[in-house]
Amino acid sequence: MEFTTESIFQALKSPLGVIDNAERRKQLEGYIEAARLALERSVFDLLSRFAQAVNGQVSAHYEVDLSYRPGVLELDVRAREPSEPVGEVWSLAEGEVEKITLRIPAELKDLATEAAARAGLSVNAWFVRVLARALRAAEAPEPPADLRRGPPGRPGQRLTGWVGTEL
Fold this sequence. Notes:
Layout (H helix, E strand, L loop, with lengths): L1 E3 L1 H8 L8 H13 L1 H23 L3 E8 L2 E8 L26 H14 L3 H17 L5 H4 L19
Antiparallel strand pairs: 1-3, 2-3
């Protein structure tokens, strides 16, 4: 979806009709045009923060991206691919359920609660999912040493995730 910023500038110029002095009105119109880029940028920054807040709430299912080019703000909303491979979803309805008490630092609990909310899950369901993922990763065979390193002289790293576009 594209949104033009022209309506903002028309709204700024419309009250200038009440100015009787044509020269003064022309100066103010010039000022509005000179401020166009800075005003567009401010609107973009405001809406970028809005898009980031929306992403924080719906990031488990959608990605919201806002891009800018002079005169146009473009909003892109994409559905995310399911992050869980088939077979990794666990349900408390499957088999017996055991209860454990887990002691964790308060800050870690808060972070887990936030992560669960972003994923649209209860804290318990989120912990079950993360634990299942960790167990599967622990059971996976270790890759050969030559595949674990990047190019010679540089440690290899793998980064995954979504990157925002705040300018």
